[in-house]
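The protein record quoted in full:
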Amino acid sequence: MKLRIRGNSLRLRLGPSEVARLATAGRIEEAVAFGPGQPLVYALEASGDATEPRASFADNVLLVRLPRAAVETWARTEQVGIAGEQPLGGDVSQGTLRLLVEKDFECLDRAPEEGEEAFPHPLRGSACAPPNPS
């Protein structure tokens, strides 16, 4: 699972086995260590209680919860992602947090990274896609 944070947006990209695991187990997580006792855990959870994507951060854990039905549909179809926006408080001036969870497609313009798992790119082999670099 890849995590990208930019401004008020979170983007999580999952390979095929991670999408399958999320759909069956209901949760996946990874961690980055910044030193002893200083991990940043980021997790994705399919929840029957969630009605839309929501993120929270507590005790060094960034948790993104998605509606279980949306995850199940996403996992078994060609749907690329699940998106949502989360208000950042009662004051409209605080804005929103944009959330995007998507399937991680192989890059068209470079060789895949060693050991990296990705979905086949939908444009691979089309007239508008560059040739496979491998």
Residues 127-134 have pLDDT under 50 and may be disordered. The chain has one domain: 2-103. Helices lie at 16-25, 68-76. The CA atoms of residues 1 and 14 lie 5 Å apart.
